[in-house]
Write a structure and sequence with these properties.
2 domains, two-stranded antiparallel ribbon, 5 helices, 2 strands, flat
Length: 152
């Protein structure tokens, strides 16, 4: 069974979420399942995303100057996600045959919360420094603010 997640914005939504989960479990084998409730964290911000895409452009320029002509910003994005975010498995269904297969897709940054995005960006920054590529980090950026908070 695939993982289920429900975002509940108020206590009034609990019965609806419970009914949806019960319906989803009705077709499953009678085995234990885990239910956890946790505060929803804020997803990565537009500021973080904008800086990250600026970094992909800077890294691309650096790698191209170093002779890696294939290193477009999109290639850099995929390479960083491959190296530091990894993959998630998803089930796909062939609409013609009905065949179900499991595929691995690169994780998406839009699914990260602000803390996970910050960690991902730290990994990228550290790797870039290790190859001599110094990325721009605006002093007023959210990334720099979180970095300062982390160091206090």
């Amino acid at each position: 069974m695939a993982e289920l997640a429900y975002v509940i914005n108020s206590r009034q939504q609990l019965p609806e979420a419970y009914n949806a989960m019960a319906a989803a479990l009705s077709g499953c084998p009678d085995e234990p399942h885990e239910l956890s409730i946790k505060p929803k964290k804020k997803t990565r911000t537009l500021s973080q995303n904008a800086l990250l895409h600026m970094w992909f452009s800077e890294l691309s320029q650096y790698l191209i100057k170093a002779g890696r002509k294939f290193a477009t910003p999109e290639w850099c994005k995929d390479a960083m996600k491959h190296s530091f975010l990894g993959y998630e498995e998803k089930e796909r269904v062939d609409v013609v045959t009905g065949e179900k297969i499991t595929v691995r897709d690169l994780r998406k940054t839009r699914d990260l919360n602000t803390a996970a995005m910050h960690y991902f960006m730290n990994e990228i920054e550290a790797w870039c420094v290790s190859i001599g590529c110094l990325l721009t980090i605006p002093d007023s950026s959210e990334y720099m603010k979180l970095k300062r908070e982390q160091n206090q």
